[in-house]
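Please complete every field before forwarding. Incomplete forms are returned to the sender.

SECTION A: IDENTIFIERS
Entry label: holo-394
Bound molecule: pyridoxal-5'-phosphate
Molecule representation: SMILES string

SECTION B: INPUTS
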Amino acid sequence: MKREMQNLPPVDSSRRKWLKTVGIGAGAAALSACVDSGVKELSAAGMQTEHFPSATPNLNDGLIRLSSNENAFGPSKKAVEAMQGELLNLCRYSDATVNVLVKKIAAQEGVSEDQIIVTNGSSPILFGYADWITKNGNKLVTSMATYEGVPRGAEFMGADVTYVPLDANMDFDLDAIEAAVTNDTTAVYICNPNNPTGRAVDAAKLTAFAKRVSQKAQVFIDEAYIEMSDAYPSNVQSKLAADGYNVVICRTFSKIHAMAGQRLGYAIMPADQAKQMGRMLRMGGVNYLGLVAGMASMEDLENLNTMRSRVGTERAKLTAAAEALGRPYAKNPQGNFIYMDTGMPHDEFATKMRALGVKVVGRTWPGYDTWSRISVGTPEETDACVNALKAVYA
Ligand SMILES: Cc1ncc(COP(=O)(O)O)c(C=O)c1O
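SECTION C: PREDICTED COMPLEX
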């Protein structure tokens, strides 16, 4: 993919220079070689090696951004081309195009079209759902150390949220969560694979759990990272929605599709609820370029498979580094990040990593004050992160 095609800024030479020098001590030469070979490899594959939106130059602060679980490999070439072909058509409202995407999702997930709502990213669904909880009984059960969108939104709106501890493997403790659900629980939030732990729950166990628990309370399954998991697509839970269980399945184009800045997400739920929530969340519609890119990216199966493998390769480098450094971490992560016990307050770790040029997540999860989430980057970025980790624990 040519840089000019995407109208991206030229590679910042100071950043490139910095990448070459961030290899600390003995690692410098190796890193430098790695940077060059990584860049060559990506260029040979026609991949963009650096992605920074030119309208926000401060994002390109020279730090490697491993803080937000972004997909640094960038979107499908087909998605970019599809958007370029539509730039002059932005004068039209996009409602009719939403219906085209809805048909594609319905066909892919085996659900009916009236069960689907589409939004600008999945965050509006999470916050809309928090609102829905407060209006439908006001009680949520979820796990500690999970993505905050629904639980924090629900708390903010005044709901009663029960946080069940993770089990010994840092998994959602489905048995304990089920035991915490009562007849007046409104909903249960499950994130699979979970952010920040990266752990995926066993698909059959989750299906059985959802079938039982959804008789009492709605089960919301956030599948933001599901396409990155080794067991994709067999661990997708849309069939529950197709079979009429009281569940919500939520997806985003921000992760494997690498469209975080373009904003596109969707949820599958009972049709009457989709009608109600869809009306509330529509709030002016969904952006047209996101729809165009999302549809092209869904069809680009080669890109999705390549991406899963690229992310897996980078993730393995981070888990190998944690092993080599003797740091505990949540085993077998399935998203584009690892969750590691840093052995120090998380903000001290973040400050040390920042001083070495790597930005890791700036917040922590209650109960896990020494743990930090580190996203994978491009090969050169992940390698630089590994060198920074070695320096922190030298
Ligand atoms: C588990 C999970 N769900 C949902 C989101 C929201 O993503 P977006 O609004 O970009 O779709 C994120 C973002 O990091 C996430 O980690």
